[in-house]
Prior knowledge:
By secondary structure, the chain is an alpha/beta fold.
Amino acid sequence: MTPDPRPLAVFDLDGTLADTAHRQRFLERRPRDWNGFFAAAPQDPPLAEGVALALDSARECEVVYLTGRPERCRADTEAWLAAQGLPAGALKMRRDDDRRPARRTKLEVLRRLARGRTVRMLVDDDELVCDEAERAGFSVVRARWASTSAALKDAQEREGRT
C-alpha cells in the first residue's frame, strides 16, 4: 500500500467541529465534573463552519483529528465523527493520565506529524494552542465560530483536560 502523499489538515474537535456549549456546565461546578463533561460529548451538535472546512480540506489533504480528549473517549469520539459524515482520518488523543496543557501536547503531536508529512494547517479554537503552533511555523486557522465558557478555557490551560 502506497503512503498518502497529500498534505495534512489537522482539526481539533471541541469548539472547532463539536459544539460543547451544552456540556460546559459540568466544568462550572467545583469540583469540575470531568466524567459528566466527557460522557455528554456524544450529544454534541456539529459546528457547521468547522465541518464544512473539514469536508473541503479533504479534497486536497488527508484529515487528522487532534484532540485534548482523553483516550478513554475514543469509541464515542470515533462514532461521533462518523455520525457527522466527517472525512475518515487518524484520531490523535491525549493519554488518560496526561494533564499537560493542550498547547504543549498538541504542538508535540504536530511536530511528530511534520517529520514525515507536510502539515498544511491546524484548525483549533484554543488561542494558546494557535499561538504556539504559529510560533513553531505552522499555518493556523483560528476556529472562532463557537462560544466557549471561561471555565472551559481555564480547564484547557490549567488542568490539561481537553
